[in-house]
Design brief:
Elements lengths: L2 E13 L11 E4 L2 E6 L1 H9 L2 H6 L5 E3 L2 H11 L3 H6 L11 H16 L10 H14 L10 E3 L1 H15 L17 H6 L15 E3 L2 E3 L6 E7 L13 E19 H8 L2 H17 L6 H4 L5 E9 L19 H20 L5 E6 L7 H8 L1
Antiparallel strand pairs: 1-9, 1-10, 2-3, 3-7, 4-5, 6-9, 7-9, 8-9, 10-11
Helix pairs in contact: 3-5, 5-7, 9-10
């Protein structure tokens, strides 16, 4: 099989799992109606950091722009990079003075960020551009570092360089990037290295922004909190604030290029394991925004999985016209099924096998779904 398509309907009660810059639920306008939205970035982070994914793949990548700080701290405290990241404090190496640690921390992390010279020139133009940028930003605080996603193998290479520094040797800095199979999270969701695109990884999993299948509104909750130690004679609240939220039934669409996933991970066996974990996580794990306030934990009420070799297609046209009525889930499921049948009638099926889980009616199961994947 080349492609795996996952269609889900997931109901959220009053919630605000993914906020905009004003702390209000994100939205999107479809047709004449405003829908609530959950960004694909928010969904992917929830899935890749879930216990489901990390339990199956203990060695996952780390995304950060502060690796140099952790390298410096580890060198000063005599720790391995892995111990520093994990928060362990027992020294296992000779500590390095702060000045030396800072120097090599910048060199090691800088190797990952170093711009690759073009094969068509000798790199003089790039060198001049870098000198100009340094001159222009000298004395200015800059936060232009790219957020990089490091693989465990790359972090291990960085730690080898750190071990050399701790022993008073000059570290080997060439070849820190790893072009071997990627860990599950990078293999699925990809990474982009601006200064060295050869080290980028094309994502094998595409995730659409989720949105409500019906029109939705953002509501505001004015709330107060009582000061437990305030004077009995003192009337009023100790705190007042306002919180925004929304509720709705969301359509989630995921497309997996299984062949690319297998290539990124190095084996079909690992790719199938990652695919199974992804489906389970996408069905049961949600973003954690405002969970303490709303407890908006949800499982998918409906799942449709299709596998095949033809060009994939979303079933989002089912919801161009907002779903109405007092049975939103039932009407949304019928809209999906109708759209699928009509597209198949016009273009032919793009899948060889499909499987449905309709939790509201108790039909289908995760175990049954996993079996059709092979």
């Amino acid at each position: 099989m080349k492609y795996v398509q996952i269609h889900e309907l997931m109901s959220f009660p009053a919630s605000n799992v993914n906020r905009d810059d004003l702390n209000r639920p994100k939205t999107v306008t479809i047709g004449e109606g405003t829908r609530l939205r959950i960004s694909s970035q928010s969904l992917k982070r929830a899935w890749r950091t879930s216990d489901i994914m990390n339990g199956a793949f203990p060695e996952m990548g780390i995304r950060t722009k502060e690796l140099s700080k952790h390298i410096e701290n580890a060198l000063v405290r005599g720790l391995t990079l892995q111990d520093e990241i994990a928060g362990r404090t027992e020294a296992t190496r000779t500590s390095v003075d702060k000045k030396t640690a800072k120097k090599y921390a910048e060199l090691i992390d800088g190797e990952f960020r170093k711009k690759k010279s073009s094969e068509k020139d000798d790199g003089e133009e790039e060198e001049q551009a870098e000198k100009k940028e340094k001159k222009e930003t000298k004395g200015k605080k800059s936060d232009k570092k790219q957020l990089l996603h490091y693989s465990p193998a790359e972090l291990a290479r960085a730690d080898e360089a750190m071990a050399a520094v701790a022993e008073g040797k000059e570290p080997k800095l060439d070849g820190l990037y790893a072009r071997e199979p990627f860990p599950a999270d990078i293999a699925m969701f990809g990474r982009f290295v601006a200064n060295n695109t050869a080290q980028s990884c094309e994502a094998a999993v595409q995730v659409a922004h989720a949105y409500t299948v019906h029109k939705a509104v953002i509501e505001d909750d004015f709330f107060t909190a009582v000061d437990d130690l305030s004077s009995r004679d003192e009337a009023g609240a100790g705190h007042m604030d306002e919180s925004s939220f929304g509720a709705g039934l969301f359509y989630i669409y995921i497309c997996v290029d299984f062949e690319l996933l297998a290539a990124n991970m190095g084996s079909e066996e690992d790719a199938m394991k990652a695919l199974r974990c992804l489906i389970e996580a996408a069905s049961t794990v949600t973003p954690t925004g405002k969970q303490n306030s709303f407890a908006s934990r949800s499982y998918a009420s409906y799942i449709l999985v299709e596998t095949g070799d033809r060009q994939p297609r979303s079933l989002s046209p089912a919801f161009l016209k907002p779903v109405r009525g007092d049975d939103l889930l039932g009407n949304a499921v019928e809209a999906l099924r109708t759209t699928e049948r009509n597209i198949d009638a016009s273009y032919g099926k793009c899948y060889d096998r499909s499987y449905e889980i309709y939790a509201q009616e108790g039909t289908g199961s995760i175990d049954g779904l996993m079996k059709i994947l092979g």
